[in-house]
Write a structure and sequence with these properties.
Strand content: under 5%
Structural class: mainly alpha
Distance between the termini: 107 Å
Helix content: over 70%
């Protein structure tokens, strides 16, 4: 009977595939960082209902969420060179389209995709922030930027973190589509290996193990960060309550001191 499954090959494939893990992680981390910044901008624009920009961003979010990621990768792959041609024509530049790295197409597609999805998560988290805290900060004379940095974003982060973590995990798995834009990452290397030895099942099982391990590690890190943030916020609230109690108790202490002085 022929050897239908080569279990040894499953293990030997993993080190070869892990050589391309840095490329996968680079796609994930860069796309997530840029996507989060863009997502925050979209969320703030839509919350403040800025004319024109609100409608444009709403259309963008609807389009990205309503189309497959694979199609968005193809649009980036063929659309970025077209955009560069227009730039060269109207600005009289001579950028070489053939020198564009394939990584750029993947980065653009994934960053925009993350921005669209995370903007909704961030918008919901920003809406969950207690209005009373914002009004208290305004009464203390804080500017809009200070309120955003010190109160709104930290409070919203606690709410949004689980959803953002799930989106990060989806992004890790989504990088397996990067090969369609010519980026050689783990899945693309797996296809190359399988094309040489025709052991497709073993190669894809090796890939599944790697992606599974990455997902488990990411979940552990997210839970750890979430616990630390919740612990920090709890301690902070306790300190705020103690400060409030001390401030309220101060007039009572002064009244008692006055009474003691008068009785003497």
């Amino acid at each position: 009977m022929p050897k239908l499954i080569d279990f040894k090959m499953i293990l030997t494939n993993i080190p070869q595939l892990l050589q391309y893990l840095p490329i996968t992680l680079a796609i994930v981390i860069l796309s997530m960082i840029v996507g989060l910044v863009f997502a925050l901008i979209i969320a703030l624009v839509r919350l403040n209902k800025i004319p024109v920009l609100t409608q444009l961003f709403t259309l963008l979010v609807s389009f990205v969420r309503g189309t497959p990621l694979l199609v968005q990768l193809y649009l980036s792959y063929y659309g970025v060179p077209i955009a560069l041609k227009y730039w060269n024509y109207y600005n009289h530049t001579n950028y070489n389209i053939n020198n564009l790295p394939a990584f750029l197409f993947v980065f653009v597609a994934f960053a925009i995709n993350e921005a669209a999805y995370n903007s909704e998560n961030i918008r919901g988290a920003l809406l969950s922030v207690d209005r009373g805290e914002i009004e208290a900060a305004q009464s203390l004379g804080m500017t809009g930027g200070q309120i955003l940095r010190r109160i709104t974003i930290p409070e919203a982060l606690v709410v949004a973190l689980p959803t953002l973590g799930n989106q990060f995990i989806s992004l890790i798995k989504g990088t397996s589509l990067a090969f369609v834009a010519g980026v050689i990452e783990m899945t693309a290397e797996g296809q190359i290996i399988a094309g040489r030895n025709f052991r497709y099942f073993e190669v894809y099982l090796s890939l599944a193990i790697i992606y599974w391990a990455l997902t488990v590690i990411t979940e552990v890190i997210i839970r750890f960060v979430e616990k630390r943030i919740n612990k920090f916020r709890t301690v902070q609230k306790v300190v705020e309550i103690n400060d409030t109690l001390e401030d309220n108790a101060l007039p009572i202490k002064r009244s008692l001191q006055v009474l003691e002085t008068e009785t003497k």
